[in-house]
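Take just one protein record:
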Amino acid sequence: MSDGPLRVTHYGAARPWNVWRLLFLIVLLFPAAVWAAPPAAKPSLDLAVVVFVMPEGPDRVAVAYQTVETDEQLKQDFAAIARELGSVPPKLEISRAEAGGKEVPAVSASLSGLTDRKTGAIKLDPLIHVYRRYGHFRAQFVFFGSYPLQPLGNFNQPPVRVAERVGDHAVEYEIWVDQSHGVPATVPKVTARGSGWNAIIGIAVIALVVAGSVFLILQVMNNQRRASEAGEGKSLDEHRS
């Protein structure tokens, strides 16, 4: 985001999530706190998302916008993310920060579904779909405690390009959405792209098991037939003698 002094203005009563706002700002302004070797260049971003993945309970999701957005737009964005996750819109905490003389809207909420602690999956698709109106944004997932991460890898299918960066306790996705023809109506799936290969592999394994079973059955039947024929031949010889 922009360089310069940062001033945060709170709206409403005292917020219980100040610690999350502090962590959010630390991750954004001091990436070395999360990454052993942060990028040398600081690219211009339209949007920054940080997901704090807790050992239990819902994740804490914080978003900072480089563009000026209304509170209603922030609510619509989070409601859309929750809808794609099959959840209800979460209760939001909205603040306005001033960085380099420019207002930076920020919003935070508790939300489940973007991560799965059992499988280590990361659901990036809801974020890409909802924020596809931005040409360049970043989503960081910071893990508190162990997390069996299943990396998504890099992705490049127009109009979306994703670069993945895995750290010891975090994973980062830098996302570009081509806006040359306006905001894309749809975007390709990133998270589920490996499911097709998994299904193919599963079918292949089942086919091999079935083929092996059939081979064993035929072999047993053939051995039994040979044994039966041998027995019948022996009986004939004994009868003749």
Q: What stands out?
A: The first strand starts at residue 6 and ends at 10.
